[in-house]
Design a protein that fits this description.
- The protein is of the alpha/beta class.
- It folds into 2 domains: about 180 residues, D-Maltodextrin-Binding Protein, domain 2, CATH 3.40.190.10; about 100 residues, 3-Layer(aba) Sandwich (D-Maltodextrin-Binding Protein, domain 2), CATH 3.40.190.10.
- Helices cover about 45% and strands about 20% of the residues.
- The protein has 14 helices and 11 strands.
- It is globular.
- The two termini are about 25 Å apart.
- It comes from Desulfitobacterium hafniense (Desulfitobacterium frappieri).
- This is ABC-type nitrate/sulfonate/bicarbonate transport systems, periplasmic components.
- InterPro entries: UCP027386_ABC_sbc_TM0202.
- Keywords: Signal.
Length: about 350
């Protein structure tokens, strides 16, 4: 029925356009002459189930207002089901198998999923820029060059953290395999523990783990912002890229079946991001409500989380440049090949 109404509306609109072209039109008929000619309204799309997954961290933080409004019944255009998970391994199978329709994932994983599913997912928006920082329990690092010869504790091997760190090091003349020792940990919490265990220890951590570490040990300081270091490298380039941590993807099948639901999701998500960035204390309370991190941590971490919203051509320019940097480091990091144009969704 919905498709039929859409076709009918299209025909009406086409007729209206044709009436305005060519030879002068006859005088408009009055309602009495054509009582059946009344304005048609576009029928609202029927509500659908929208299953959304987000990782526990900045990608979920940007959604908290959206989640809260959906739970409170303020948003009723669709039936949104949000789930926050701790590990990316929980996202991938659900997205691929249809257990999720939309998911916030690491930027490079979006490309991997696209390639591995032969176009089964598309990227809708960028939701988080760089959130990686070099921190230390001392005062020995003030530039990338100061990392030469040091041991860096890090988590995220095979994902954005590794590729971002390697890129920043290499572009500053430091061989990641020879000039530094990168000790990879399975969890960020292990890096925090390493910082506390010895003086002048150095680690790469994302927000909000940086703030969490600082609440436990006031001697931990932020030495370098990898987003700023990335921007320094890219400055002056023909098409400068950005360090991107997370994006939002959706199953291609879901986009085709429910374009109205996808558009509504993007509108609500943008509103949520704007709220989070403009209302730190209220957003922090919601971050705690959804058990992401305590409000005391969130209120300090949110300004450094680089939560954003970018879609369309702006998203494509930034993300394609970022993926190209990763591809040049290691083609496997993006699934073996750079995604085709169809990977970038635009409404």
């Amino acid at each position: 029925m919905k498709k039929l109404l859409s076709v009918l509306l299209s025909l009406v609109m086409t007729g209206a356009l044709l009436t305005g072209c060519g030879s002068p039109a006859a005088p408009a008929a009055t309602p009495a002459e054509n009582p059946a000619e009344t304005p048609l309204e576009t029928p609202a799309a029927d509500p659908v189930d929208v299953k959304v997954l987000a990782l526990k961290g900045p990608t979920a933080m940007g959604m908290v207002k959206f989640m809260n409004d959906a739970d409170a019944g303020t948003i009723t255009d669709n039936r949104y089901q949000f789930s926050i998970v701790a590990a990316v391994d929980e996202v991938t199978p659900k997205l691929v198998q249809g257990g999720a329709d939309i998911a916030a994932v690491p930027a490079n994983l979006a490309a991997v999923l696209y390639n591995n599913t032969k176009g089964g997912v598309k990227v809708l928006s960028i939701n988080t820029l760089g959130v990686l920082y070099i921190v230390e329990s001392g005062n020995t690092v003030s530039s990338v060059e100061d990392l030469r010869g040091k041991t860096i504790y890090a988590s995220g091997k095979g994902a954005t953290p590794e590729y971002a760190l390697n890129y920043v090091l290499a572009e500053n003349g430091i061989d990641p395999a020879k000039d530094v020792t990168i000790e990879w940990k399975s969890e960020h919490a292990e890096c925090v523990a390493a910082l506390a265990a010895s003086e002048n220890a150095i680690a790469m951590l994302p927000q909000p783990f940086v703030t969490t570490a600082q609440t436990k040990n006031q001697g931990i300081r932020v030495a370098l912002d990898l987003t700023k270091e990335w921007d320094k490298i890219q400055a002056g380039g023909a098409n400068p890229s950005a360090l991107i941590t997370g994006v939002v993807v959706a199953r291609t099948e879901f986009i085709k079946e429910h374009p109205e639901a996808v558009a509504a999701f993007l509108d609500h998500y943008k509103d949520s991001v704007d709220f989070v960035n403009g209302n730190t204390e209220d957003a922090a309370a919601l971050v705690e409500k959804y058990a992401i991190v305590p409000a005391a941590v969130a209120v300090k971490a949110l300004p450094a989380c680089n939560i954003t919203f970018a879609e369309g051509s702006g998203m494509r320019d930034k993300l394609s440049g970022y993926l190209t940097v990763l591809f040049e480091q290691n083609p496997k990091s993006v699934g073996g090949t750079l995604p085709a144009d169809e990977f970038y969704y635009s409404r």
